[in-house]
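Before the break, one more example. Copy the sequence into your notebook; we will annotate it together after we see the structure.
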Amino acid sequence: MKGLILSGGAGTRLRPITHTAAKQLVPVANKPVLFYGLEAMRAAGITEVGIVVGDTRPEIEEAVGDGSRFGLSVTYLPQEAPLGLAHAVLISESFLGAEPFVMYLGDNLLKEGIGRFVETFRQSAPDALILLQKVADPRSYGIAELNEEGCLARLVEKPAEPRSDLALVGVYLFTRAIFTSVKAITPSARGELEITDAIQHMVDRGLRVEPHVVTGWWKDTGKLEDMLEANRLVLSTIERDVQGDVPETTIEGPVVIGSGSRVERCTVRGPVVIGDGCRISDSFIGPYTSISDGVVVDHAELEHSIVLENSRISHLGARMTDSLVGRDCVIAHNDARPVAYRFLVGDSSQIGIL
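Here is what the structure looks like once it is written out:
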C-alpha cells in the first residue's frame, strides 16, 4: 500500500500567514502539521509516499527532503493548480499504479492515526473506505448520508440544507477503482473535481464504499480557530521536559522548554511548548501556548496562542490570547507621544483592539 498526501492549495483561510508559508508547514505544538501526516503513514507501515505540491513546492521539499528522516521514500507530484482533491488523485495515477493507497490531506490531524483503518481496509477489502465524524456545522464539509443499515447512501459537498451531520474526515483509502470514477466526473460549480463526486460515482457503480465513524478528535487546520484548537488538543498530550535554563521561574504542569532557551522571572503554566534558543523574561506564559525557536518575550502575558520563529513580543499592556503570530514579527508597546496606533499590516490580516 502506498500513501498520498495533499500539500497544494493556497491556504486562503489562514492568510496572511500563508502569503509567505505553506499552510501545511504552520506548526501545531511546534511541529509542522504536515509532519503529523507523514508520521501517521510510517506508523501504519506505509513507506512509499507521494506528496502533491503546488506553488509552495520549494518550501515543502526543503522541509521534508527525500523523506528518510521519517522512514519514508517521498516522491513529489506537481499539481499545476488547486483543481480539487479528485484531480490530485488523477495526476497521481502513474505514481500509485495498481496498488491500493491512503490519501491524507496535509493540513488535517487525526488523534488515533490511521493504522487501525489501514488494517481494517486490508482485512475487509472494500473498494474504498471513508472516515466520518459528527460536526456542529455540516454546511462547511462534505457530508455523508447513511441508510438504515449504516451503509453509504449519498455524499454531498457543503450542502445548503444538510440531511446528516457526518462529515468526511480528510483521510481516504482506495483501490485503483477510484481512477475510473475521477476520470468520469466533471468539475463542480467551483471549477474543481470533487472527491465527494468521485466517491458517489463509485457508489453509483455498485462498488463497496465502507464508512467508519472516527471516535477520537479530528481537526482540519485550515482556519485560525481550528489551528488553535488543534494546538490545544496536541498540547494536552505532552509531558514535562525542561532542557533550558529557568532561573527564578515558576513552572506549573506539563511544560516543554528547548535547549538553549532561557526563561527567567516568569510563570509558565502548562501545557506549554517553548522551542530552542528563546529568551523569555518577566512574563506569564499561560496554558495552550506554543512558542517556536528563537522567540523573545519580555514583560508580556500570553495564553492560548501560537508564536512562530524569531518573533518578539514586548511590554504589552494587556494579555495576548487566541492569537497566531507569524515569523519575524514584532509586537511591542511604544511610549512615544502623542499616543497613537502604528501598524504595518499584511493582506487579509485581522487586528482586534479593546
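Helices lie at 33-43, 57-64, 85-91, 93-96, 115-124, 177-184, 195-204, 224-235. The chain is about 20% helix and 30% strand. Try to locate both features in your own notes.
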